Amino acid sequence: MTETAGFAIPTPYLVFLGAAHDQLAGKTGVGVAQWRREACVGQMRLPGCRADAGLPDLSLEDAAARGAKTFLIGTTTRGGRIDRDWIPLLLRALELGMDIASGLHDRVADIPEVAEAARRLGRSIHDVRHPRGSFPVGTGEKRSGKRVLTIGTDCSIGKMFTALALHRAMIEAGMKATFRATGQTGILIAGSGIPLDAVVADFISGAVEVLCPANDPDHWDVIEGQASVLHPSYAGVTVGLVMGAQPDAMVLVHDPTRRTMRGLGSRPVPGIAETMEAHLATARVTNPNARIIGISLNTQHMAEKDALAEIARTAERFALPTIDPARTGCAPLIEALRAI
Amino acid sequence: MTETAGFAIPTPYLVFLGAAHDQLAGKTGVGVAQWRREACVGQMRLPGCRADAGLPDLSLEDAAARGAKTFLIGTTTRGGRIDRDWIPLLLRALELGMDIASGLHDRVADIPEVAEAARRLGRSIHDVRHPRGSFPVGTGEKRSGKRVLTIGTDCSIGKMFTALALHRAMIEAGMKATFRATGQTGILIAGSGIPLDAVVADFISGAVEVLCPANDPDHWDVIEGQASVLHPSYAGVTVGLVMGAQPDAMVLVHDPTRRTMRGLGSRPVPGIAETMEAHLATARVTNPNARIIGISLNTQHMAEKDALAEIARTAERFALPTIDPARTGCAPLIEALRAI
Fold first, then answer.
1. Which of A205, A263, B210, B234 is the most exposed place for a label (fewest CB within 10 A)?
2. The three-state (H, E, C) secondary structure of B242-295, written as one string
3. pLDDT (tens digit per residue) in B34-83
């Protein structure tokens, strides 16, 4: 049933920041440059752009000369629309031998002249918000290799960041590890993955089984989490992800300053203990040995002193290694993973 | 974001049984005739058909003369394929003023000449396995009206049957109730609904919120359940359904003779207590007052004496009204619902 499962985007990238009006509007490109510096030949900015991914500014021709394989749209736009002014650039990038990758809501492949040019030139368009191919139904059958999944008390709380930081720390520690992306930004960073929230409901856990298949016994998949099993809008996605992942280990991500769930009015963020219990119950359906091995606090809105105190308090309260990957690094989690 | 949410299929139906080689191959049409007798003008059978929905045998012309509004494909086929021999019949049905409804895997709307004829004649094709329109993201916000949802220990265990029987009993008892279909057979029976397993993951609970919207305080939606929150393949669908439904009441369906989960090798069927606990935890995310008000046993594979003993034992063990809708009727559940 599986055709091309997920994406495989050629690197290196030319990171296109368009006319992003501030750094936040260019966050996709900035994130790709932050986590995959070695996979970026440079950035391309239009007049008025106020975002900077810290890469050399290149023209399309310069980027092609430096071997760019993919023109990566690294800016967000109002409503996820594709700016009509970009079309000549997209066509030229294709002519220069590049694929196009986009995490925008609108599909690049829906622009007839761009789709036609890609077909004629034998290039691919990677619209990573839209799943490619079809997936099997999940089986829940045990598979070899180890998997660690980030979970959290809410959406947009740092699950991708924690997974990327943990993956980098594991590689630096000499462990065999692969980052597995489940959302569009993660897919653009990793160059592969499956946009889980866009998969048809029946196939969520099956898609995750394809995303992180059987592997060497000492290999770790580090899987980007999504939402929460206690989230009234997206819990279906999370439950399919947790069951498909069969995680040996989970790292819980929480923001101590967030009081209400994002986009859900006054609904309070569930507590850490409640969130742990719900995710463990779900994970144990397919992996009875699933456990939570640590906590990752997103303390970006706290002063350094308060943040460190909160991290220490949380570690003591839950008797679990607790970090903020942006402040303290991931060393305590590495130790916990090695113990499995 | 919502366009045409779900299906609305005009009745009465002409139930087409094709050349179904046995009664089971005609089970969709037989089910429609069983639960919506008043919505069927008759059945149409091809030479060699061995299924019988107990309806008058009619030609297309006779059915049209009796006011048939939809030609309903009530037979399953190998691989869910549409038999090429049916195409002249489909075209003639459209010409006679009928819509076409199908729960097969293949889309009738993908047959060019049929799609073209429907367009030309202003008729609709209802491929109920494939969701129509788009759905909003779920909000989890409390809405008025009451909702009862069937849940179960496995797939294909009797959740639709129990919901239909309960709905019928509630109407007979003078309650205000609407059956809400979430799967293709249920949709063909009800003439409306949403095929939940085919909705994109992000919108599962949102689709359910659309399916059973706010209603009068004394009105009950009787919602067809899907799979189980403990099912390794489909739990994402179920969790989205349970959270979107915000059920005030749930009825647990179980088959005492089933030892292993359907299609999952030797994985044992979870117990009733475990299944209750998991569904209650999920339901309480959006409705803290959710409760399980009864148990529906599917005892079709048991002798009458054993079945009645099992029903009595289960009622006592869980201190809950317990029925088999096919043997004992739904009266004890009606009492429990009235008490809410």
1. A263
2. HHHHCCCEEEEEECCCCCECCCCCCCECCCHHHHHHHHHHHHCCCCCCCEEEEE
3. 999 999 999 999 999 999 999 999 999 999 999 999 999 999 888 889 99
- Matching residue, tokens 């980030």: A150
Distance from CA of B194 to the nearest CA of A (A): 13
Smallest CA–CA distance, residue A229 to chain B, in Å, is: 8
Peptide bond into B332 cis (omega under 30): no
Ordered by where they begin, the domains of chain A are: 7-127 (3.40.50.720), 146-338 (3.40.50.300)
Q: How far is B205 from chain A (nearest CA, A)?
A: 6
Q: Residue B250, Cα to own-chain centre: how many angstroms?
A: 16
Q: Which residue of A139, A237, A241, A246 is the best one to mutate when testing the B interface, meaning the one whose CB has the most B CBs within 10 A?
A: A237
Query: In the 8-state DSSP scheme, what is residue A108?
Result: G
By a Cβ cutoff of 8 Å, what residues of chain B touch chain A? 137-141, 196-202, 204-206, 229-230, 232-237, 239-241, 243, 264-265, 267, 278, 281-282, 285-286
Amino acid making up residue A263: G
- What would the two tokens of residue A58 be? 């290149």
Cα–Cα distances (Å) from A157 to A161, A310, B196, in that order, read 9, 16, 28
CB atoms B202 and A206 under 8 Å: no
Distances (CA, A) of A109 to A28, A133, A189, B134: 20, 15, 20, 20
Q: What is the ipTM of this complex?
A: 0.91
pTM of the model: 0.93
